[in-house]
Amino acid sequence: MTENRPMNPLGHIKARARFLSLRYLWRLLAAALALFAIQLGLSLVISTLDWILVGEGTQITLFGMELSLSFEILYLLAQMLLAPLELGVASYYLRGSRGDPGSIAGPFLWYGNRNKLKIAGKYSLWQLGFRVVTFPIGVMPIYYLNQELDRILMEATNAGLFVESVAVDTRGISMALVLLALYGLVSLPFTALPYMLCDIGNRGLFKCVKYSVKLMLAILPQYLLLLVGFIPWVLAGSCIVFIYVFLVVYYRLATICLIDYARSNMTREPYYKDFSHREDEQ
What we know:
This protein is mainly α and 282 residues long. It has helices at 9-23, 25-53, 69-81, 83-97, 114-133, 135-138, 140-158, 170-187, 193-200, 205-218, 220-229, 231-237, 241-265, and strands at residues 59-62, 65-68.
């Protein structure tokens, strides 16, 4: 055999991801938390402004849920401004999986590069279209589950915290979870898209989308096994909160390492290069 890779690559991939996660934990975690904090802050600002300026003027009732059309539209448009940061964080993790993420300011550098901004602009338009198309299975179930949780907590409080006296819509909750699972399946082929855009975004958005779908479908069994392997970590996190903090970095690095491993072994991979010793981001 001329192949030096282990027979079970997932063990090698997860070991490398764990090592890199521990080595660069705080830098990579800071990048992920910065993106999350900005997204959360943006959502709160838009929600407040929508309530002050529009109020209930654009609220509609859909399947028993109250939605603010103005908020949803503004939020989708505002998310487009974060596309460079999202790709910047993806690039930061990509560099971390290949040896060194670089400066903590790395995720924000996409805002200062014209070529990268063009790639991010195309990505933001793709995200906008994808979120509109998947709104019924990706957003509405979240609305329903939040509304159902608020109702249960309210009724439980009024009933003196006797939760057994509160009626739970198990059918509706089950349907919402099924829709979210469907959304996950629809989103799965595009998991590699941000990393493809970081590597070969100059070749065009549609080529990156096509390549992401091809790649993820090719490694679907391995990716599902990778996800199953994280179940014990999630369960352990219920006892030790720090494990969840570690998983934020570990899961993403493991996904990137799997994608890179698959790309390096594809016989017709036209774009992959060995980036493991690259010092500067191209």
